[in-house]
Amino acid sequence: MTWSRLPLGIAALGVIGCAIGLVLAPGEMARAWLVATTTLMGLPLGAMVLLMLFVLTGGRWGAAARPALTAMAMTLPATLLLFLPLLGAIPALLPFLAASPDTLPERVVGKLAYLAPGWIVLRTLVVFALWLVSALLLRLTPWRTRITEKTGAVLGFALYALALTVFTTDWMQALEPEFSSTIYAMMVAGTQILGALAAGVVMLRVTGQLASPSGEPEAPLGDDLGRLLISGILGFVYLAYMQWLIIWIGDLPPEAAWYLARDAWPWPVAFWLMALAYAVVPFLALLLGSVRRDPKRLAAVATVMLVGYAAEAIWRVAPAFAANGTYLLLLAAAFAATGGLFVMTIDRQWRHGFVGAEARHVR
């Protein structure tokens, strides 16, 4: 897998911008870093879920995509390390914890004990441990267990779901403590899986895995992956729409305020980018068999979806904080730093790890 030096340059610029932000505006930097790292974290987690699904169901798509998904999933420890500094920034991310309970809404007061910084740190460390155990059960680490791969996939699914529910409650919903949604964790899982699948398609195109050994386009494989992308899009749209519909029908003011915050400038830009790049455009394009069966067109659609994946995460998490110019600039720097480092890490995994050997074995 060969990448240009572009990711290195982007990562370097992002790291410089983040370093400046950490010195001049540490609170805004922490908020921007939270958005970027949780977005990045979704890709290896989604890749793990797709690998678990393949282990349990099989299929040509999984056999072909396994090297790319494995390379992504193996970046999980690095992405968790990038998140760890935020454990010391909880006061900046949850400023209401320092307020007098008398000044807070009753719904928020009821959450104060649960959201105590010490408990958040402890739960986060447990969540990370559960995700790493899931990777161990899926045999993505140098260590091995006596548990069969299928049993590991079942257990991994359970650990992933439990940990994601806790993590999204502590680090996403808690940012706007009056908001509450029982479907939120499921919605995040859907976006992670869809984003990882889109990234996997792009990686397969870059590495030539969307072509058969003879060099001819492998139409059935592309068709399978395209149909999976359609299913993921429909699942994402359904969950997002159902959350909005339930809140609208129930006439719930605190939850409605969550949507109103995302209607303020500049967040509608992220919404429309999400709607077009993560749902409407790829869905319509993938309905065409000629697009699904053409590796180049399929990869182009998947690339557009990755833009939509980032826009969805920004729209969902970033509006929890005031949209001033410093915050927006640091958001761009944080995404540049984490995105560039992510690509470089995958490249290293592919060229120097066992993933490359696995890719050759699959082919």
Short description:
75% of the residues lie in helices and 0% in strands. It has helices spanning 6-24, 26-57, 60-73, 76-83, 90-93, 106-109, 117-137, 149-171, 184-207, 219-250, 253-261, 267-286, 289-292, 295-317, 325-352, 354-362.
Measure the end-to-end span.
Answer: 15 Å
Number of strands: 0
Task: Report low-confidence residues grouped into runs of 5 or more.
Answer: 212-219, 354-363
Instruction: Output the number of helix runs.
Output: 16
Largest sheet descriptor: none
Shape, principal axes of CA atoms: globular
Order of helices and strands: HHHHHHHHHHHHHHHH
Which whole number gives the mean pLDDT? 86
The radius of gyration computed from the alpha-carbon positions, rounded to a whole number of angstroms, is 20 Å
What is the total number of structural domains? 1
Overall SS class: mainly alpha
Bin the strand percentage.
Answer: under 5%
Helix content: over 70%
Outline the structure in words.
The chain has 363 residues and is an all-alpha fold. It has one domain (6-362). It has helices spanning 6-24, 26-57, 60-73, 76-83, 90-93, 106-109, 117-137, 149-171, 184-207, 219-250, 253-261, 267-286, 289-292, 295-317, 325-352, 354-362. Helix 2 crosses helix 9 (184-207). The chain starts with 5 loop residues before the first helix and ends with a helix. Mean pLDDT is 86; it is low at 212-219 and 354-363.
